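Pasting two entries for a bug report.
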Amino acid sequence: MHRKIHSKILAVILVTALIPLAGLGTASALLLSGMKNHALDTNNELGSTAATDSGTALTNQIESDLTARAAAIADSVDGKLLQIENQTRIVAAYTEKLYANPEDYASRPLNYLQPGQEGTAIPHIRTAEGVDYDDVLPEISLLGNAADVLEEFIVTGINVSASYIGTESGFFETVDTNSTGPNRKDYDARTRSWYIGAKETGTLFWTDIFADASGRGASLSCAMPIYAPDGKLMAVAGTGATMEKISEIVSGAKIGESGYAFLLNNRGEVVITPKSEFKTDESGALIGENYADSTVENINKLGDDMVAGKSGITRVALDGEDVFVAYAPLPRTGWSIGVVMPNAEVTAPVTSMQKSINTLIFDSEAAVNSYMTTAVTVVIIAVLLVLILAIILSFRFATTISKPISLLTEEAGEIGKGNLDHTITLMTGDELEELAHAFNMMTDELKLYMKDFEKVTADKERIATELSVATNIQASMLPHIFPPYPDRTEFDLFGSMEPAKEVGGDFYDFFLADEKTLAVVIADVSGKGVPAALFMVIAKTLIKNNAQMNKTPEQVFSEVNNILCESNEGGMFVTCFMGYLNVETGVFNYVNAGHNPPVIKRKGGEWEFLPCKPGFVLAGMEDINFKPMSITLNEGDMIYMYTDGVTEAVDQVEDLYGEKRLINTLNEDRELNIQEIIKTIRLDINNFANGAEQADDITMLLLEYYGSGGQKRE
């Protein structure tokens, strides 16, 4: 072995050193001359490529910076809108408490604005024509308790000009920084756009930007409906605010040397820009350029994209100037922020950089010529010296290297036979000695690894066993025997739950609260895995225990919500739907805590969503009042309940399964029984996902009502 390695090393040195060096000595001048020409050509090519690539990269960076700036301005504006929205929500929530619990509040009557009080932020009322003050005095005295809240927002709000409540009964309570007209008895809030918008949408509503009638400039209103405990609309809370701060953010934005920002409303109209003022016609309607209606194709597409809530960057001609426009949406109001920078300003750094690169190319060509001349001389001398030295050292070098290599090979072979206790001893004082030491460390670490591997394997098997047991325990906690009540002919049930992990946070349940009341529950705990499963067990147990104590669904949710809020340090919550079915009359009373609305099919009809107010989640906030709702089921009617794992299932490109596809799948064959329906939906979800990993628990529960004298379908 030693002689073989020695001979090979010696042969390699002689072949790779002596013969090439002899030839290199005669050809070095020609080769270096060719290298010089190639280096110059390559230098020019690389310089040109670098200039192009760097210019592209710099342009892309500027575009990225513009896009980020548009998003930053949008975030800043959205923050101001959020403050106004939060104030409106607080007034609405407080007023709903007044209507829900009037006996808890003292009488606090308000009156019309009195002479001498004009222009002051004093709480007062106005009434619609034909509304008598004494007739609505009890309600005025109740809502007078909200005056402090309205007044506080006028003092502390950002650009808040008025805070108010308009009622269905015809009076209007307000605190306004520019109150005018004492004893106003001809103001009907019910005819105002903010009131109508909130009433029709049934949720938070933003008005268009308008010119304030009191001379406060561009303004807007945010409004929210207020309902009585029985779901009846009682009033609308609103906040009026000027656009001053938002205008400062947009118009004051510094975009390069000559760029600017602008605000586009949800109809494509330019509302705020430093290039023009906010203008309205005699009716108060906005007068401004409309990008969405522009006859210029690129500007029209820009307007359409901004109105559609998209973000990005494009290049268009605005006012005869070639510019880049980056844009970002304001989803809260449907507006969009645009950032404009002239193309000339964007490309100026690129042009300057390309000039610098061309200068460097010229300088490098001169340096290459000088270096190549020196290199030719050095190579010729080096070839002669190496040729002589290689012959002298080759034999000695081969002998010195081959011996320790052979010894290391023999010692490593002993370890390779499985003797991990063998130690390699090699004293060469170079890398071979370090290699021998590395072999020794490797055998020690290999022995430790084998011991650790055995322990890790055992731990994994134990954890897998425990998770398998937990999966079985969770599955056994949910009703899984179908049909569940073979002796009951009034109804039938079928459900399924597939966790995204070994254990999940979804659950469904059903039980007889009494002989004629069937309770059904479906819920989704935030998060996944073991924490969600533990929280699920607690929520499921509390709901069932309280339901069997002769409580209504809304009382059950209120009690369970307060219990779950106690010591909820993990910040978990539960979305839940619960209903009581009177199996004799078909009356179905239900309540929703932030859960997906169920789907109902009347006998012979199509599937459609059950009217259902979302409500607030369980464990989110104490002392929440949940709104009860009710329908009557007839023979053959079905209700399908599910968690968001169904509608939010995704395919390979992250598209959602969605509510529309769910309804279409249910309506494809309306004659299926309840088991076939759930199996059909699960199969359609699998086909839609097309191999994509299940991201959330998929839980479904289906109830079919046959009536007090009905008969179950086979």
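Entry 2 (this is the one that rendered wrong in the viewer):
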Amino acid sequence: MKMKKLGFIHIICLLVLSTSCNKFLDVVPDNVPTLDHAFLDRTSAEKYLATCYTYLPNLGTPTGDPAILGSDEWWAIEDPYYGTGNYYGLRLKKGEQNSNDPLLNFWDGTNNGSSLFRALRDCNVFIENINKVGGDLTEEEAKRWTAEVKFLKAYYHYYLLRMYGPIPLQKVSLPVSTGIEEVRVYRDPFDDCVDYVVNLLNEAIPDLPLQISNTASELGRITQPIALALKAELLVTAASPLFNGNPDFAGMIDNRGTKLFKAVYDPSKWQKAAIACKNALDTSLLAGHDLYQFTKITNISDSTKRIMSLRQVVTDKWNKEIIWTESKLTMADYQRATTPMFMIEQFQWMPTDPFMCPTLAMAELFYTKNGVPIEEDSKFEYADRFSTTLAPTDHKFYVKPGVETAKLNMNREPRFYANLAFDGAIWFGNGRFKDVGQGLATEQPWVFQTKKGQPQGKNSSIRYSLSGYWVKKTSHFESVSTSSSSNVIVRSTYPIIRLADLYLLYTEALNESLDAPTTEVYRCIDLVRKRGGLKGVVESWQTSSKFPSKPSTKEGMRDIIQKERMIELAFEGKRYWDIRRWKTAYIWLNQSVQGLNSDATTALEFNTVRTIYSMQFSTKDYLSPIRQSNMRVNTNLLQNPYWN
């Protein structure tokens, strides 16, 4: 009888938070019906622990991660037969988000969003019942498992906070005596939410391992560096303009008269964030994390080795730069949607489905070889960037010498060539593992031909690049398709947080916490740049920029740091969230999506710019809407600004 009453309370609570969740427990392991059975022994409890992990959003997938197709890094071709209605990120950029049936709804778990309130409920059940397990679970294991679930509970709260702003905190399971009105919850003030998540992480960290010792069975489990890195990212997010004194949220006051956001900017938030980032960095380095270097093939040039280090940092499974990934995450769908055909014949057996392409804005984003933006470099022919030229021999590891291609593709930094392929570009891998000038011609890297009718160009109405560019970073270099019966897609984990990301978060937080940049601000960003083959920020701007003093000011370094993040972490699901927390999304997401002329057959015609689509973004899009049906069920919930 007690279990039935508890179930009823859970049902009411879930109806208040989400009308889509109507089961009170849904214990995945073995479908056991009661909590007593779920925590009967070590085996059952471990299955419940695994259940708590299963709610992690499908990061790195075009369909389930808003930060992929929802980012202005990408555009996609809509299939005339099947459409791309389930590619909700693309629809976000088209201005199709709504409050009646929100796209990528992580509040309720609809339209390819994960049910994160349900995840929080199951995390609470685990934490509150793990002490019931019999003697076959050691005290040390119980502490570690509890710490892992506290981390997951923190992450699910954080994911919702980042997307919706203030949320109803899910601290504990509701007791049997809870009345109906008490489950009509309120959204907690944003700063209270942040403090709660920080406290959860602080409680978890001491009982987590520094590193995974049993890599055969435990890769993907939570460690101290992971928890500290999440804490750092959370506090940087909370200190950023979107959530720190944003006047657009000043009117968010619920029916109790409670203000959900503080209206005054608090600079101390950046100081807290900087300390958290430094702690996360120190612990990650102590645990053996380091900037990735490609070593799988040694008989290659230094130029190719650098390109592969910058490219494979994402796709090389469990490499030491990756601080956090999860075993269930895979880039298979991402890879399939972005990898081009390498031969005309492949259109007959379709080893990939390349409907996604990078926007022209991404090709213009990367620095010149001098380490500064193309529009700032005094030596770069910016106004003439779409004129064509013949690739020189000193570019042979990046572009085939003698190929006529846009000046935009010349004299760029190594990350440009590591991330992007274009007409005349070199692509190492996909069955060809000799460097330029080594072995037979069929063993050397592919040379891309992206004009209409060519292997990487437009050969159908749906599987080609609308922009004339392709992305290398999402494709593992060992993936290869030689025939319809020989198609190997190398599986790779998707990095949620990696060391370069953490270096740049620390650089940003430290710069924002100071009146002017210090050597420590330059040190961390320069470590990332050095791996990319660039000189330090100060030297690069002094020798090559039209604005040589830019790195000397806080505002100048802010712009440099933000661009560095967009370059280093391109196509990794970071830009989507960054431009929102910086409150610059209105700039980027109200521009026209542009590309080169994919219908052209000559270099001159191909390298002309055309508009693909005009995106739509307004102030309300900074936060996702809560579904209107939830507002009707629970009148204490306050809708996000400007959503009806």
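Dev reply: Rendering is fixed now. As a check, the viewer should reflect this: Confidence is low (pLDDT under 50) at residues 1-15, 18-28.
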